[in-house]
Write a structure and sequence with these properties.
By secondary structure, this protein is an alpha+beta fold. The protein contains 10 helices and 17 strands. It has helices spanning 2-31, 50-53, 68-82, 98-102, 188-192, 198-208, 229-233, 237-244, 248-253, 258-264; strands at residues 38-39, 45-46, 91-93, 105-110, 113-120, 123-129, 134-138, 141-143, 151-156, 159-163, 165-168, 173-176, 193-195, 209-210, 213-214, 217-218, 224-225.
């Protein structure tokens, strides 16, 4: 029993020493670019590693997302499977929306207000009317998969709105959006939905998409729907450049991995 006990202790010590050496090596690698930019032997500039400064909900100005097609060049199975996860499907482009395509006509009634979502080609339109006046708008984005509700992003007179009604898988139809008042709307604009502040709008896109935020500005032309690789691992431009240049250590230091997160938290 004594010999077995000491053998187990030695094994634990050996593993601990190995882990500490790994930590030291990793921290040394990360420190290569921790004080600003460093130029490698092939002349590619590396900024302070994202493992030390990347926050998925606080995207700094000027970051360069390369898209998960670049990630798939080396990590094809992971990039492909990620798109099919709940996080990967946190947002749908309207033209590709499975729910909106499968439900070309959706209706809902509350008091004298009628709501409808109708499909025309690759676009869907959100319409609300009180019988006298009508607002009809193209849906800009579809947030969620329908399990807890799919809510629609609308734009009206320069502002973004969260649709008053959402689609629910369980109902196979429309009902009030979670958190919205369930009474009869007091106005046509109230029936349209909730007007979002700038910070609320940014938060919607931060949590449901990748690459659509640059600092405190929307850049919807660069948006990828859902939580893709770079939303959690950080913008991959430096990582891709380093790896293609054969600078593996700098490449690994320029992207957030689980190992780096454990080391730095």
């Amino acid at each position: 029993m004594t010999t077995k006990h000491h053998g187990g202790a030695k094994g634990r010590v050996s593993r601990l020493v190995s882990a500490l050496l790994l930590v030291a090596a990793s921290l040394f690698t990360l420190s290569l670019s921790s004080t600003g930019s460093t130029t490698g032997t092939v002349g590619v500039s590396v900024q302070q590693p994202f493992a030390q400064r990347w926050n998925p909900t606080r995207v700094p100005t000027g970051v360069n997302f390369v898209g998960d097609q670049a990630c798939a060049e080396c990590h094809q199975s992971k990039a492909t499977s990620q798109r099919q996860t709940s996080m990967g499907m946190a947002m749908e482009l309207v033209e590709d929306s499975v729910i909106l395509s499968a439900n070309p006509t959706l209706t809902f009634q509350k008091g004298n207000y009628s709501f409808s979502i109708t499909r025309k080609g690759k676009q869907s339109f959100y319409t609300v009317t009180d019988g006298k006046e009508t607002i009809s708008l193209p849906i800009q984005f579809a947030f969620g998969q329908g399990k807890a509700g799919q809510t629609y992003g609308l734009q009206y007179e320069g502002a973004y709105y969260e649709s008053l009604v959402s689609y629910y898988d369980e109902l196979k139809g429309l009902d009030f959006t979670i958190g919205a008042p369930r009474g009869v709307p007091t106005s046509l604009l109230g029936a349209l939905g909730r007007r979002l502040s700038k910070s609320e709008t940014l938060n919607c896109f931060r949590c449901h998409s990748t690459g659509g935020i640059n600092g405190d500005q929307l850049q919807l032309e660069k948006l990828a729907p859902g939580i893709r690789c770079e939303a959690c691992h950080g913008p991959g431009a430096d990582h891709v450049a380093m790896m293609k240049a054969g600078q593996r250590e700098l490449g690994l230091a320029s992207i957030l991995t689980l190992a780096a997160w454990i080391l730095l938290t």
